[in-house]
G-protein coupled receptors family 1 profile domain-containing protein (Diploscapter pachys), 278 residues
Amino acid sequence: MPQDYSDHLAFWFHTVTNVFGIFFNSLLTYLIITNTPKPLKPYGVLLLNVSLSDLLACMFAYMSMTRIITTGEAVCFFYHGPCTWFGGSFCFYCYAFMLHWFAHNLFILFMSFIYRYYVLKYPAPSRTTLWIICILVYLPSFSQFSSFCFSLGPESKARENLRKYHPQYDLDAYVITGNEKLLEPLTLYTTLYMCAPVAPMYLMMLYCRHKVYTSLNTVQSHLSENTKKTHRQLMKLVLIRCFHLDRVSSLMRRRVRDKPSVTYFTDNGSHLSETIPA
């Protein structure tokens, strides 16, 4: 639970944004399931995956309310959410579960761009086919979640590192866990899996967007104006969902490590893209 003014601000920021995200992504999920027009049913599979991953990310972001602090070669996690009622290990697993939905969301968004281009050239795949593809795309993210769970280090070591590098904190007031080394294989795998694909993925999304608009303006002249308008609107929707603040925050976190306001912003601000329903 919050201990000082920074903790209180972060607690309420987390509460407001994540409750907002839970409510609206729940509503969006319901609307996708019940009101998707028949021609868009296959695409609804991808939209449903995005809304569900956002919903679960918001739920577990609220549960953990994590603040990340680096300590030399290690990284420590402070928790302020309801998970603290069940102990540090439970909080760490909640945080790990949240992270893997961020990663899965990126790959599903990439699939959405590919799908919009694919259906301009070929018949739309069936919903069953898309569900199978989504499950296959999810498996690497699940492996990242599983491996990160095994990277949890001893709480005593995390507190020792914090006392050494950040003696200003009253550690007895917090639930804390940590990874012993950032370059440990299990931790490094999570970092690389979440960060390395970002730039190439976004570049490929922009390329797919360009190809879709080119096709709509030239090759696909047989499409009606309403159909073209629908394609453009869906592309704008997917493009908006691509602006993930968690990618920016991960870079900021490596620049400024000690100021509570900055570490809270970079960690809490990362959830904003998930609170905005697709």
